[in-house]
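Q: Convert this sequence to structure tokens.
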Amino acid sequence: MRFCKECGKSVSDNLQFCTNCGSKIEDSVENKQNTTIQTTPKNTKSKASIIICITLALLVLVGILSKDSIMYNYYTIRADKESLASKSVEYYGKALNIKYNQDIVSKIANKIKEDKDFENTLESLSYTLEESDLDKVYSDVYVSKAKENYENKNYETCWTYLDKAELYGYDVLKFEYYNDLIKIKDKEEASENVVLDDINDEYIISDSSTRYLTENELLKYSDKQLAYIRNEIFARHGYIFEKDEYKQYFLSKSWYVPDPYFSGSEEDLNYIERENIKLIREIEKK
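A:
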């Protein structure tokens, strides 16, 4: 409600002139203050609501990020300290689910290399690592196992792991022992064609139970042939072999007579036989 300043008559808010004296109605200071008082709280309330909403959103976001950071650190620390490789990889996987990075991927590869049951652990990573990283981890682990078996002279197993690594993109020509492996393979294939005994092919070395063998004469044989020479000494006593390759080989010899009473103990061999077996094993380890 407004009032005419000329005659004091009350005038409706929608009229511009006084109905009593005709004077133009102008808003008084009091009216302006009332108007301001009526509108100001609405604007202030609206701005305050926006500020509160933004603040709450920021607090929630900071809380989430803070929680993720805490859990990420927890999982990586647990993984680093875990002695069991498979368990360590499990914690690393949980850390990756929070924040994916290559450092953790590398740590996973290194841990799996230490794991005896590494192939099962590798399979558990199917839904944890990105495809390219998973292939790289498979490749690295198989190459590591190939190297380990080469150094232990398990050449066939070494080739097996190299073949598996190749399935995941590894170039076997880059294997540090590749040239040596090829030479060993060629030597073994060539030695398989060597006549085992110039006198009688019933034996590889026909008198290994009655004379001392020498290192020089044994060096011409492959590791596989040395194993047969060593087992030939036991076969003379009728030892019954469990491995099918030896069982079939010696059963094909006319002189071999299986003896169930022979235990296979070296104590039951004569001194010359024991010394020859000792020498053969030393050469096999080289």
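Strands lie at 2-3, 10-11.
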